[in-house]
Specification:
This protein is an alpha+beta fold. 39% of the residues lie in helices and 26% in strands. The protein is built from three helices and seven strands; from the N terminus they run H-H-E-E-E-E-H-E-E-E. The strands form two sheets. The chain has a five-stranded antiparallel beta sheet with strand order 4-3-7-6-5. The protein has a two-stranded antiparallel sheet with strand order 1-2. The longest helix is centred in the N-terminal third of the chain and has 32 residues. The protein is globular and about 35 Å long.
């Protein structure tokens, strides 16, 4: 009986362990998605990119991972999960801690290597505020940035 319980427990836990990603794996996935999105943008231009990034079944949408983009004035140009945000300025939007994360996205895209991580809080699928981090990268030679984040 003990052997049966142990085998059952292992069979239940192993898939859960395989499914969950470590923080470093999530960071690598978000960063790669952004880098792939930047390459796509450079090759195909803004209009084709927005269409691809927002469409259902896009290779730029993988579970909780999706791309969003802004211009360097803070205006959302696309959002892979919430297209209704398109056209909204994010510069003055604050999270529960008072962080102007949209402004942080723009600053990150303009300084140093034109990329980096921004930590903030955002509303998750359960409509609850949760800690989130996003990798931001400026599209070279443009006034646009692309980001991808995940809940911690």
């Amino acid at each position: 009986m003990r052997k049966y319980l142990l085998v059952t427990l292992i069979l239940l836990l192993v898939p859960a362990l395989l499914i969950s990603m470590t923080l470093e794996e999530k960071k690598a996935k978000a960063k790669k998605l952004v880098e792939d999105g930047v390459k796509f943008f450079e090759k195909n231009g803004i209009e084709a990119s927005i269409k691809e990034f927002e469409k259902e079944g896009s290779k730029f949408k993988e579970g909780e991972f999706y791309l969003f983009g802004m211009d360097l004035n803070g205006k959302t140009i696309f959002h892979g999960q919430k297209p209704a945000l398109k056209g909204n300025s994010m510069l003055e939007v604050t999270d529960a801690k008072g962080i102007h994360f949209g402004a942080q996205f723009v600053l990150t895209a303009q300084k140093g290597e034109n990329e980096g991580w921004v930590d903030y809080q955002w509303v998750n699928k359960e409509e609850k505020i949760a800690d989130k981090t996003s990798f931001i990268k400026r599209v070279p030679d443009t006034n646009y940035l692309i980001g991808c984040g995940f809940y911690k």
